[in-house]
Structures are given as structure tokens and as C-alpha cells.
Amino acid sequence: MKIIIINAMWCPGCLISKSIWNEIKLMYPNIEYINCDYDLDEENIIKYNIGDIVPVVIFEKDNIEIKRVIGEKSKKEILDIMEKIL
Fold first, then answer.
1. Strands, E, within 1-86: which ranges?
2. Distance from C-alpha of 78 to C-alpha of 22, rounded to nearest angstrom
3. Which CATH number fits domain 2-85: 3.40.30.10, 3.30.460.80, 3.10.450.50, 3.10.50.40?
4. Over the stretch 15-38, which tens digit does the pLDDT of each residue have?
5. pTM
6. CA dihedral over 30, 36, 41, 45, signed as positive or negative
7. What is the DSSP letter of 31?
8. What's the distance, CA 72 to chain centroid?
9. Could you read off the pLDDT of 33-48 as tens digits, one per residue?
10. How far is the C-alpha of 42 from the C-alpha of 85, rounded, in Å?
């Protein structure tokens, strides 16, 4: 399982998202996490077809996207999504 997290420095919701993901990473250390900056990582922004709304979280299994979450989510919402996927 791989989780791609797209944030931006200017996005207030992204700052909240980062702290939530730091906690989740400790809970699920065996998952690969890739952090991308919306303004600095043009290659991945194009690759993953990211629009204008951040944060964006993409869940991949065997390099296939299985879930995309757009916008700020609570820790509980993220954990509920992860439990369904894992």
C-alpha cells in the first residue's frame, strides 16, 4: 500500500492535514507515504492529475489508484477510509 499526500504551504487545511498524517504514520508504519508539495512537485501534480483543491490523498495498491480523497478530512474520516481499504 502506498499513500500519496499532496499539500501546499499556503493551504490552512493542509497544515492541519500534515499533523493528522504524522499521527497516522506512527499508527501504520508499514505503509509507504509520499509527500508532495503542490507548488514544488510539478511532475507528480501532473502525473496524478491534481486540480486546484488541496489537500489530496491518493491510496494506491500495486501502483493502481484505489481511492482519492480531496479536501480536508478529520483523523477519524481518514482512519475509516484506511480500515475499509486495508
1. 2-7, 32-37, 56-61, 64-70
2. 12
3. 3.40.30.10
4. 999 999 999 999 999 999 999 999
5. 0.92
6. positive
7. S
8. 10
9. 999 999 999 999 999 9
10. 28
